[in-house]
Give the backbone structure.
Amino acid sequence: MDIEIDLTKSVDENAGTYFNLAKKAKKKLAGAKEAVEMSQKKLEKLQQEEDKFMERETKKLEKKERKKEWYEKFHWFISSEDFLCIGGKDATSNEIVIKKHTDKDDLVFHTDMAGSPFFVIKNGQEATEITIEETAQAVGVYSKAWKLGHTTADVFYVKPEQVSKEAQSGEYMSKGSFMVRGKTTYLHPKLEYAIGLLNTQQPGTSDAPYDNEEIIGGPVTAIKKRTNKFVKVISGKTKKSSLAKKIRSKLKGGELDDIIKFLPAGGAEIKK
């Protein structure tokens, strides 16, 4: 290494100059070393995060996709007495529920409020007051009454032959609307619902631990029969997306999209 000497300066002055240069170089070296160490720590943290992400994704891939049932495109739940109850989500699905999935032994539920779903209990004429009350509650929850913040709703039920698309003279039946004739039986259910987490097994894995988690929703009594992991919800001001996060936190599991599917339109709160 060549060292230049300034002949206009004394030996002590030249030594001082190089001493200061050496100090600056030492500081730069220390800074560079610190920067390298910080970069290494950041890389290690990123690697750990990547490893966790890959682990989660691998577990998702390892889980077999649960086969969805035909009725899961609608509002649905299984009653305390194991009756399948399905309801429309909009005008189109109301049409489908009544026209394609209603048989003579069913019971049909609705409200007098516009925009309410039609619900059907499959083989409902064999059901007791328990399932009938649960279905009335589901209709009320998914009706406009929930959006308006009501605590109860007026829900009626009839037999399938009382429901028709034939309007009275001079009237027009819009999509999702039906004419109901004859005697109606009214109920006044309390408007609250439950979202639960159900542990399930894939077919052929009966000796293995539970390998799938399924979100279910419905009247409290119906959900309580199927799982002890559930939360109750009532009408409120919290948006679906925010409430779904709170519910998932309390259930300690479940997918947000699956929780949102069961939440009624409008705001809601977790019942304490």
Q: What stands out?
A: The chain has two domains: 71-187, 193-270.
